[in-house]
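User: Can you predict the 3D structure for this chain?
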Amino acid sequence: MKFSRLTQLAADTVAAAQRRLPPELRPLAHQVPVHYEAGPAADVLAEGFEPDILGLFTGDPHGTSGESPNPAPPQILLYLESLWDYAEEDVELFREEVRLTYLHELGHYLGWDEDELEQRGLD
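Assistant: Here is the predicted structure, written as structure tokens:
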């Protein structure tokens, strides 16, 4: 499937996921931009991430701005070709994986660690 179509499907899925969030989380979700990329950049791979990574949160989590030595704006990266491959080129499974990956990375933005993500079913 063309990258432009995957991007549209993913953006629609993220928007739907945001609408389903509890009202107190929606404004926070809209504060962190979501970027759709084909796959991870060389610098991400150089940090030790696998080439088939599905998504990544970068930057400081909400409420911790300026605490890191190299502050960067928060963002969520979704790697659409990895998600498409993971979903075995099934559109409905792709949407579900985009939704889960987005919510997982949003959880990192909210400051939730892996245990908290697991407790919320976002692992």
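The helical segments are 3-20, 26-31, 42-46, 80-86, 91-109, 114-119. The two ends are 27 Å apart (CA to CA).
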